[in-house]
Amino acid sequence: MVPVLNSGDTAWMLISTALVILMTIPGVALFYGGLIRRENVLNTMFLSFVSFAVVSIIWFVYGYQLTFGTDIWGFIGTISNPLFGGIVESNSLSTYAPTIPTGLYAVFQMTFAAITVALISGAVVERMKFSAWLAFIPIWITLVYMPIAHWMWGGGWLEQMGALDFAGGTVVHVNCGMAALALVLILGTRKNARLLPHHLGYSIIGTGLLWFGWFGFNAGSALGATNLAVSAMIVTNLAACVGMLTWILIDKLKTGKPTMLGALSGAIAGLAAITPAAGYVNVTAAIIIGFAASICAYLAVSALKPRLGYDDSLDVFGIHGVCGIVGTLAVGFFATPLINSAIKGGLIAGHPMQIAIQLLAIVVIGAYSFIMTYIIGKAIEKTIGLRVEDKEEVHGLDITLHEESGYRLS
Amino acid sequence: MKRILAIIRPDKLEVVKQALEDIGCHGLTIKDVRGRGRQLGITESYRGHDYKVDLLSKTEIEIVTSEEDIDKIIETILKTAQTGDIGDGKIFISPVEEVVRIRTGERGEKAI
Questions:
Q1: Measured between alpha carbons, how far is A236 from B5 in angstroms, rounded to an integer?
Q2: Residues in chain A, pLDDT under 50
Q3: SS3 of B35, please?
Q4: Which contiguous run of DSSP H or E holds residue B77?
């Protein structure tokens, strides 16, 4: 059958792309910006915005093809068209999604790369040098994100083994979670490491934009305006809702009062966890996944982090890392060809081997991300330095790094 | 001439301001302040961690007035700002050495 451009698919994928862009700018920026202290609001949001800009450019200079180009030994792709030369001009359709143009698949994938970097920024806020972040972005995206995305989505070895990640449970969430952990171990704890959000209103808006955009993230990963996209949208929303209510319940049981921040965190926990599973599981599974993810994330941020003492400021590992792991494992249990005929399914479909394959993907991607990020972080630390000076940290990064203030009230 | 510094609950500001206007006291300066008295503060909870917050928001009203009007003003503030619960605030009175009206350069009580 000759692939032909489908305008319905293309329209939906264009919208999905825009939705995921909205998640980074300003979704993540606002979500993070509300959680830190007032003196660092601009710098915090800046990290997300500048990540998006740098990744976008790199992606179309060489990034897309290094990730999704012709496979070399299952490890990485081939750059046949630097600066994306000739691809849009040729009107070619994507080999990964034959009813939409190659360029559209590329720009859709770009948004995933960008948000993965932006998410990491939440761990390093309030103490990282801006120049160090600028150096980190291109090095990390090339040495960590691109190989991992290739292994899982670009025809690489994990995909060949049958590992399943519908929209980025490993490629985005486990990846950024482990990278965040590596960076904070080098960076060290903030002088004032208390989580006292200065403007939860921003975080509320940010979460709304993330939730909304996630439909592009998950349902868009169906790569078409199809029933699979519908299924993904339904389970994505359900996982978010169950995640939210679960966290509210735990808050009430543990601290006596349901909190808004808890509700937001629970929703994001559910969303992160359903991400690898969105196109493989049904409603019942989505409810279970949202519930389990919220509990695991709650424990990670309230018990694990203080016990181990690392300052993952905005819980990138605690929520994205942990929920990416939960969701990716859940695929091994709940994936079913009844939802997605392209797969064998997991335990409930009589294919329990999938659990082991998922576990392998988590371990490999998690370890690779952690080790490589640690090396990159150390390299930047030894050359241009990673952390700001003490007095810059105390005065606030907006004034000291950017000579700007987020709240000039007159 | 005296300065009256009244630290009151923020939600009492409108009713105190109106009552002061009703007795003829128009000039005042309002500041948003934070502080604590002898109470233990409140607890805020973020992602499972509790934090004790003992600096609570209050409103400070500053009035400079002549000796004769002090008692009336204090009585008015007491009547309107009082709830009977902890956190109602305090009034401080101190002497003022000189007052100058910038527009005209007048000094003394007539500049109030």
A1: 56
A2: none
A3: strand
A4: helix B70-81
CA B24, distance to chain mean position in Å, is 17
Query: Concatenated DSSP letters for A158-175?
Result: HHHHT---SSSIIIIIIH
| Residues 297 through 316 of chain A touching chain B, CB cutoff 8 Å | 298, 301-303, 306, 315
User: What is the pLDDT tens value at each position of chain B, 112 positions in all?
Assistant: 999 999 999 999 999 999 999 999 999 999 999 998 887 778 889 998 888 888 889 999 999 999 999 999 999 999 999 999 988 999 999 999 999 999 999 999 999 8
Task: Map out the domains of chain A as residue ranges.
Answer: 7-402
- CATH class belonging to A7-402: mainly alpha
The residue to which tokens 């008015």 are assigned: B76
Cα dist from B80 to B35, B84, B91, whole Å? 21, 11, 13
Among A271, A268, A276, A279, smallest CA distance to A169 is for: A276
Taking CB atoms and an 8 Å cutoff, what residues of chain B touch A257? Answer: 45
A195 CB within 8 Å of a chain B CB = yes
Please tell me what DSSP assigns to residue A407: T
What are A125's two structure tokens? 């806020």
User: What confidence tens digit (pLDDT) does each residue in A341-373 have?
Assistant: 999 999 999 999 999 999 999 999 999 999 999
Interface residue A31 vs chain B (CB under 8 A): no
B44 touches chain A (CB under 8 A): yes
Q: Give me the phi and psi of A275, to 5 degrees please.
A: -55, -50
B48 vs A contacts (CB less than 8 Å) = 251, 254-255, 262, 298, 301-303
Q: For residue A47, give the nearest of A238, A314, A356 by alpha carbon.
A: A314
Reduce the DSSP state of residue A150 to 3 states and report it.
helix
CA distance B39 to chain A (A): 21
Give the closest-approach CA distance of B44 to chain A in angstroms. 9
pTM for the complete prediction? 0.92
- Cβ contacts below 8 Å, chain A against chain B, sum to 32
Interface residue B103 vs chain A (CB under 8 A): no
**Residues of chain B contacting A207 with CB distance shorter than 8 Å:** none
B10 token code pair: 């923020």
What is the predicted pLDDT for the residue at A1?
Answer: 61
Are A323 and A269 a contacting pair, CB within 8 Å?
yes
Please tell me the predicted confidence (pLDDT) of residue B40.
72
Q: Which residues of A251-282 are buried (b: 16+ CB within 10 A; e: fewer)?
A: beeebeebbbbbbbbbbbbbbbbbbbbbbbbb
CA distance B49 to chain A (A): 7
Domains defined for chain B, CATH in brackets: 2-111 (3.30.70.120)
Are the beta carbons of A234 and A47 closer than 8 angstroms?
no
